[in-house]
Amino acid sequence: xxxxxxxAVLFACSYNAVRSIMAASLMRHFHGNRVYVECxxxxxxxxxxxxxxxxxxxxxxxxxxxxKTFDELEDGFFDLIVTLSPExxxxxxxxxxxxxxxxxxxxxxxxTLIEGTRETRLEAYRQVRDQLQKRILERFPLAPAPKF
Length: 148
Prior knowledge:
alpha/beta, Rossmann fold, four-stranded parallel sheet
């Protein structure tokens, strides 16, 4: 069941290098003018080249993004935090004990665990991207086109 779209959403994972940046980029693509979107990780890793490649396949450029941690967020006020890894879920629950903010856990596979050929690895990243896109559109549906 679709819910109201919050005004500010934070996507969080472990390193802010793959899952959370993919989710934030997709959310901005679909709802950028309606929602403030940010992302972070428990630790700031290096932006993952495979993540950049699979997002580029769908026309979204994340190559200039600089991963950041929870502590580096400029704005700490969110209506919803969507966590994509168990450790990010624990941090978000701790962080929101004293604030009015919902937390949702979307257990999302870590594509960096896949080994093999470049194509095998890219396919794992595509699956994560596509899963996140499906989940975002289910949870935050697009507004119907105006009727004239």
